[in-house]
Design a protein that fits this description.
Oligomer: single chain
Structural class: mainly alpha
Strand content: under 5%
Number of domains: 2
Radius of gyration: 24 Å
Order of helices and strands: HHHHHHHHHHHHH
Number of helices: 13
Low-confidence stretches: 39-56, 234-252
Distance between the termini: 58 Å
Shape: globular
Number of strands: 0
Length: 368
């Protein structure tokens, strides 16, 4: 189909075509894997299950997802531009895998250890150690990369390295055997591996955690992008003056304005926001865990007692101050008064996005 193009145009067209096909391949692999995760006993009757199961969907979800993708492509600024389509599909693929990674690595593990289900916690942790890196786009050098490395200070994943040293960059990112087809067929296997050590009842808990992450992402889209995330409340050493300021803010504070971002109407903006949010969440969890190990003076947090102590410290020293700061800025400072620190649920102030809450927690960890 590129016969009439010159070499440069042909190469560009081939690049865009492969970008689209690559993203679609991964999306379909993920959807098929997720549909098999959702095959329940009721749906299969008396047939013997040979894969992980939980009641969270099925093959009917694949068609609806593909129809949604088509609608989103139709709503791109230039629906026929292959570059825009490739960018959108790559974003959607990244968000799908980041969502699964976040749900399994953090939400499921925290729920299992908090409820004292240590076998399920260890099963998820041990399996994800091998499975999730294989699902990510982290660069992995190949066995043929020992003599053809990308010169420093560049790294194989850098766009400059891709332009200057395309073959070396390819070998440095897609190892250990970058030209073998087998590694491209392991998406379903690795997704199954993450949950393979769970009992049936635990898989329903896993289903709930995946659903919880999805609902949180919908909330992020509903609130959209806020420009005042890093506005700080002025601090005065005079306590009386601070109380006066809080009193004034309670009258003059206002809920921040936001604009809902729709997956179908603004697909690129929506998935860029979701990708940023999920990456921010992962950064927060890494900082939080490292901070927690230092606070409880433990090399790891692997039992319920230590986890509850760590959660209590996180709640009182990090999360609550952030929420109070945001609430005071919006004139809602009284919502946390009389709070029983270890029992009451901490609700986010009205009109505040999870993006702002998590971003300010990251700032707290980096400055403390």
């Amino acid at each position: 189909i590129f016969k009439s193009l010159d070499d440069e145009q042909c190469m560009r067209a081939l690049h865009h075509s492969l970008s689209i096909v690559s993203a679609l391949h991964d999306i379909l692999q993920y959807l098929c894997a997720h549909s098999r995760l959702g095959s329940s006993h009721a749906r299969l009757g008396s047939r013997k299950l040979e894969f992980v199961s939980a009641d969270w969907g099925g093959t009917e979800g694949i068609g609806s997802e593909l129809r949604e993708i088509q609608k989103q492509i139709n709503n791109l600024n230039i629906p026929t531009d292959p570059k825009s389509i490739g960018e959108f599909l790559a974003l959607r693929r990244d968000v799908m895998f980041l969502e699964f990674d976040t749900a399994v690595r953090y939400s499921m593990a925290d729920t299992f250890i908090a409820t004292g289900n240590i076998p399920a916690f260890k099963a998820v942790n041990n399996n994800t150690y091998h499975a999730l890196p294989s699902l990510s786009n982290v660069q992995k050098p190949s066995l043929f990369n020992t003599q053809l490395v990308v010169p420093e200070p560049l790294e194989p994943r850098d766009s400059t390295a891709f332009i200057l040293f395309p073959w070396r960059s390819f070998l440095g990112r897609n190892g250990p055997y970058p030209v073998m087809h087998d590694q491209w067929d392991t998406i379903e296997y690795n997704i199954q591996l993450c949950l393979s050590g769970l009992k049936d009842v635990d898989r329903h808990v896993a289903n709930g955690e995946i659903l919880g992450v999805s609902l949180l992402m919908e909330d992020v889209l509903h609130l959209g992008i806020q420009d005042n995330i890093f506005i700080e409340e002025p601090v005065d050493s005079d306590n009386q003056h601070l109380k006066t300021q809080e009193s004034k803010s309670s009258h003059h504070g206002s809920i921040p304005q936001f604009k809902t971002v729709s997956r179908n109407q603004q697909p690129l903006e929506a998935y860029k926001l979701l990708k940023s949010f999920l990456k921010l969440w992962k950064c927060l969890e890494i900082l939080k865990y490292d901070w927690g190990k230092r606070r409880v003076i433990r090399p790891c947090i692997d039992n319920t007692r230590i986890f509850k102590e760590y959660s209590k410290l996180y709640r009182t020293e990090i999360l609550l101050p952030v929420l109070q700061s945001i609430a005071r800025r919006l004139g809602q400072g009284d919502i946390y008064e009389g709070l029983a620190l270890h029992t009451d649920i901490l609700t986010v102030p009205k009109g505040v996005s999870e993006v702002e809450v998590k971003a300010k927690q990251v700032c707290n960890y980096l400055t403390n």
